[in-house]
Amino acid sequence: MYKSIRLLIIAYSIAMASMIAFGVYLYLEQEKVTAGQDGYGEMINIAGQQRLLTQKIVFLIDQLANVPEVEASYEAEISLAETIQLLSQSHERLTRGDLRWRTTSPNHDGLSELYFENRRPLDRRITRFIRKAQKFQSDGLLPQNHQKDADRLIIQLNKTISLYEADDQFFTEQMRKITVRTTGVFALILAALSALVFLPLMRMMKKSEDELHATANTDYLTGCKNRRGFTDALISMSVTLKREQSPMTLIVLDIDHFKSVNDNYGHAVGDMALKHVANVVRNNIRSSDIFGRIGGEEFAIGCPKTSHRAGMDVAEKIRKAVESAPYLHNHKEIPLTVSLGVCSMVAPFSIKPNTMMEVADKALYLAKMTGRNKVCTAPSFSSEAESAAQETG
Fold this sequence. Notes:
Blueprint lengths: L1 H36 L2 H27 L3 H26 L12 H10 L4 H18 L6 H71 L10 H18 L3 E8 L2 H8 L1 H16 L7 E4 L4 E7 L3 H16 L3 E3 L2 E3 L3 E8 L7 H17 L5 E3 L5 H10 L1
Helix pairs in contact: 1-6, 2-3, 2-6, 3-5, 5-6, 8-9
């Protein structure tokens, strides 16, 4: 049992170590994905903001070029200067600042080509668009093809946003896969723990409980039931037989002159003689019968589905078997005999098992008083027999 417990502890330790190792691995993977995903939402927002700023700059340039009023022109100039500055700052952050796309991005090459390596890269388009707007601020001359430049710029910004969104979806899918993987692996580990640790542990606990119960109800010397175990089994048997309306016979036996065995040979030999008698009895009853030691040298046998006549035959068979099998000690035979009392219960089961024990004990006492090494009986119990007994009393 201790070896099994050690194996369970080892299996549990391995499972816990596996869970910890896998947890560390998942944490590192999650950090990697998070590092790649970090800032992508802001990058998408800035790219979208660039699109709006580009459209606003075109609108303000057209307004300044077509509206001569001083007050309106002044407000538009201030707004244009602020908008150009915002566009320049956002472009700087995306291409050269802290929000530049990560090399872990699946669309890194596409973004790099779009911004820097294209025939007309986005970086150059935005820079040129900003310079044209700044030049308009200084000289007031309408930039050539500024609307067409803005439209082309917006097309490329839309492509940029699509690539950023695709990257963000990629990292979101990576996180989903990690979550699914985590759930699956931990479920497998828990299943393995249940199969390899918890279920065997529960079986061991149940086995220990059964062994403890058996020990508490077993006579340590003879291996048959003790008085408590026999009484519980007899009560359970009587309930079953009452439901089935089947007869039951109780046999109580006592070893004759057993005190002289202890006095002449010692208690150790007396214990061996007790075990010998128990083995002889056990070999002459059925597996369905219950057998217990209910006193020092007193035993009892519960025989289910056994009539009074059949119970008498069983008792006589046991008496003859014990008489014909003396205990051999140091090559010397020690003769042993038993006295037996028999009581039977038949339908409609008007008495309880403890009453049967009392009646069988009286029959045993009668056997002792009338010569020993014999079988005596008590009447079978029925409602009529019980009524007669009450009237006699």
